[in-house]
Amino acid sequence: MYITDQKQLKEFVAHAKQSSVLAVDTEFLREKTYWPKLCLIQLATEEVSVAVDPFEIKDLTPLIDLFVDESITKLFHAAVQDMELIVHALGVVPKPVFDTQVAASLLGDTLQIGYGALVMSECGVRLKKADSFTDWSRRPLTDSQIEYALDDVIYLPMLYRSMKKKLEELGRLSWLDRDFDDLSDIRRYTVDPRTRFKRLKRVNQLSSKQLSAAREIAAWREELAMKRNIPRKWILSDEQVIEICKREPRSLDSMFMVRGVSNSLKTAEARQALSACVRGLDAPEDSWPHLERPPKSEPNVDSQVDLLYSLVKLRAKEAGVAFGVVVSHADLAKIARGHFDQSDVMKGWRRHLVGNELKDLMEGKIVLGIEDGVIKVTNRIR
Q1: Beta strand 2-3 with 21-29: parallel, antiparallel or unpaired?
Q2: Are 26 and 41 contacting, i.e. CB atoms less than 8 angstroms apart?
Q3: Do residue 160 and residue 250 come from a single domain?
Q4: pLDDT in the model for residue 298
Q5: Which of 67, 219, 268, 312 registers the highest number of CB atoms within 10 A of its CB?
Q6: Are residues 368 and 314 part of one domain?
Q7: What is the count of structural domains for the chain?
Q8: Are residues 272 and 365 both part of a single domain?
Q9: Is 262 helix (H, G, I), strand (E, B) or coil?
Q10: Does 145 share its domain with 267?
């Protein structure tokens, strides 16, 4: 069903309030904007599926009741971008949620399995791909486009029932609680312009003083991009921000020595960028930011990480769990350096699956060996 008026939307909301599940997906564009442009919202219960056209329906607030109703589980596949868009469009974060991509990683699938592959695996249905690169902002939408969009939610309730049953049989349903609570944490979708500098490309090339300048310029760029609703790179690229900070300019002429900056910024914007840079350079030293880097005195732990990796790979394979959902390389490095309390693998189900053994391996309580071509874990006799 294609919903294009307020009456239809309210009728669907009334129906969905009686359901225990609500499948959710969105179509959007973001190539030329800072904020994603919502083009379509697909919703489904186990009985009804709809595509809501936000170009025709200007008031989407009736959906808020569904998204915040904790008696209705919101179903997504790869939820983060959809959640971010809903938070921006409606100011609420859906809760509780169930992400079939995350759940699949605990049932032996790869960490980022696609929706089509999962539907084929669980439901035996091969989805059409003809409209996968549609410009969803163009109107009118064809019947084929609407059918393609609805396919993204029609099978989610079936996937949820099937996967939930399997997870319960394996005793793993509760393993997902923390991951799904994190998805519904509003802080995950809140933009803090003053932390954007940490994600600049090649930011680790800057000194602490230059990082202070980068924090100010990146925050100024982020706020301007948000205000004008354009990609941040249309104001200054990451490379330009880094090069400006390396130069530590005190004048426009000095800042314009960085390639392309004089063409990228109008005079007023250039003065604002320079002012932000100087403000960062002149900030008190005790306020300079620092990146999280291992101290130079800490030893190289590549060999230890390789050993820890072998243990995780073994336990993940035995449990039928995707390696990537268990631990990251950064977490293994923390374990190898003895920072157990800083690693996510030492929390919740991950700790029981392999975290405790990783700690034992680092403390010499267990050893890894090869027997008949297979890795074996044995307790160390003292």
Answers
A1: unpaired
A2: yes
A3: no
A4: 61
A5: 312
A6: yes
A7: 3
A8: no
A9: helix
A10: no
